[in-house]
From TrEMBL:
UniProt protein name: 2-hydroxychromene-2-carboxylate isomerase
Name of the top EC class for this enzyme: isomerase
Record-annotated DSBA-like thioredoxin domain positions: 7-196
Catalytic activity as recorded in UniProt: 2-hydroxychromene-2-carboxylate = (3E)-4-(2-hydroxyphenyl)-2-oxobut-3-enoate
Family indicated by similarity: Belongs to the GST superfamily. NadH family.
Pfam families: DSBA
Listed EC numbers: 5.99.1.4
Presence of the UniProt keyword Isomerase in the record: yes
Coiled-coil blocks: none
Record-linked Gene3D superfamilies: Glutaredoxin
Sorted UniProt keywords: Isomerase
Molecular function in Gene Ontology: isomerase activity
Length: 198
């Protein structure tokens, strides 16, 4: 089997497990010697299309979620602060991420928006927060705010989401190595093993 050339990372900053995975995925791709392709997609759209729902919507899972996330954050050595805006409306942040992608700053914006939301507990649906994240990623906040409302950007987000669903995604984070899918932060070790064996 030929060594894979890229790893696709379908992400939505509304997902705390996506934030956790994002703190590890770049190192994993680098160690495997493959390109990492950050693919913003709308988790809410995935849930709607697949009949899935967020863990926090199930009472027992919701109670467990808080402790589980803190354990993972402690294991990874990263900050985790639940935002007051949880669950987040991430559609504006995702559209901004696609604008950032066009400017070659997609990964920088992705890291920054997830760190702001989950590392600092900030509301990523707040235009002022998004503007600060954009500037921190080396972008013009005004340009991002204008471009993210374009029909082209809206269509691209929908297309990314539809593509992920068509390929089997049902939650976030979702990773693809070619046609092979891995789902969830806790599958990152399995993804790493797969890349090492490829």
């Amino acid at each position: 089997m030929p060594h894979p050339s890229s790893l696709e990372f379908f992400w939505d900053p509304a997902s705390p497990y996506t934030y956790l995975a994002a703190t590890r995925i770049e190192t994993l791709a680098e160690e495997a010697g493959i390109a990492l392709n950050w693919r913003p997609f709308l988790l809410g759209g995935v849930f709607k299309a697949t009949g899935n729902r967020a863990p926090a919507e199930v009472a027992a899972k919701g109670r467990y979620l808080f402790e589980d996330l803190q354990r993972w954050a402690s294991l990874y050595g990263v900050p985790l602060r639940f935002p007051e805006s949880f669950p987040a409306n991430s559609i504006q942040a995702l559209r901004a991420a696609l604008v950032a992608e066009e400017s070659g700053q997609g990964p920088a914006f992705a890291r920054a928006v997830m760190a702001a939301h989950w590392g600092e507990g900030r509301d990523i649906n707040n235009p002022a927060v998004l503007a600060e994240v954009a500037e921190g990623a080396g972008l013009s906040a005004d340009a991002v705010a204008q471009q993210m409302q374009s029909q082209e950007i809206k269509d691209r987000l929908r297309a990314n989401t539809d593509e992920a669903v068509a390929r089997g995604a049902f939650g976030a984070p979702t990773f693809f190595v070619g046609d092979v899918m891995f789902w969830g932060n806790d599958r990152v070790p399995l993804l790493k093993a797969y890349l090492q064996e490829s």
